[in-house]
């Protein structure tokens, strides 16, 4: 009887010998998000840029789960000083689908969790989820998710007087310096931040 084919004892790569040094599992992800997940894993593995922890202010990545049945909630057109108006009142102009409001292009959009305080002056606080769209073209002044020497960071896109790209923090304390992109640095704008959201309780 041939011993070829089928599962053989001790065959294959030993457990924990991959690039991350630990056992792996198989998962299914949307095809459009493959590059995003791979880039995140590469960044996780290669902590070698010298950017400090606060400058590298990106934590978790999520892909949006879009329901076939949108959740449309009342959108009130009047400002509420105290209390809450009854839906029976004539204040509801339309119903708003949260996913539709936050996401322009589902196939190219993902969410990232903010860590640190380098972007608090534009309202991005630790724990906030930001919406990143890879299909949008970045412009000067846009908040972007950038990759600098395989490290992710969210900053304001700018250019120096020499025309070189640079990434600006948004914290008036002066505790965070701009990231000047030198010619020998790996640099890519991975997506444009189009919104953010948080929970209070």
UniProtKB/TrEMBL annotation:
Region (Disordered): 1-25
Ion transport listed as a keyword: no
Compositional bias per record (Basic and acidic residues), positions renumbered to this chain: 1-12
All copies of domain Peptidase S24/S26A/S26B/S26C, residue ranges: 74-193
A Pfam family hit: Peptidase_S24
Biological process (GO), any one: regulation of DNA-templated transcription
SUPFAM superfamilies in alphabetical order: LexA/Signal peptidase
Coiled coil: none
Molecular-function GO term, any one: hydrolase activity
Annotated keywords: Autocatalytic cleavage, DNA damage, DNA repair, Hydrolase, SOS response
Family membership noted in the UniProt record: Belongs to the peptidase S24 family.
Protein name, entry field: Peptidase S24
Organism: Nitrosomonas supralitoralis
């Amino acid at each position: 009887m041939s011993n070829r084919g089928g599962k053989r004892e001790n065959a294959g790569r030993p457990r924990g010998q991959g690039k991350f040094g630990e056992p792996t599992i198989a998962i299914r992800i949307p095809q459009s998000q493959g590059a995003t997940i791979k880039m995140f894993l590469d960044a996780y593995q290669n902590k070698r840029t010298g950017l400090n922890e606060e400058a590298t202010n990106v934590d978790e990545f999520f892909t949006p789960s879009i329901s076939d049945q949108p959740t449309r909630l009342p959108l009130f057109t009047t400002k509420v000083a105290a209390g809450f108006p009854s839906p029976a009142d004539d204040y509801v102009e339309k119903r708003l689908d949260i996913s539709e409001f936050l996401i322009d292009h589902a196939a190219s959009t993902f969410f990232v969790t903010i860590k640190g305080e380098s972007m608090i002056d534009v309202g991005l606080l630790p724990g906030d989820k930001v919406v990143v769209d890879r299909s949008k073209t970045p412009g000067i002044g846009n908040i972007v998710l950038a990759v600098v020497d395989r490290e992710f960071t969210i900053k304001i896109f700018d250019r120096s007087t020499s025309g070189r790209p640079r990434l600006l923090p948004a914290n008036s304390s002066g505790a965070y310096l701009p990231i000047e992109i030198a010619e020998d640095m790996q640099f890519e704008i991975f997506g444009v931040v189009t919104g953010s959201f948080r929970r209070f309780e």
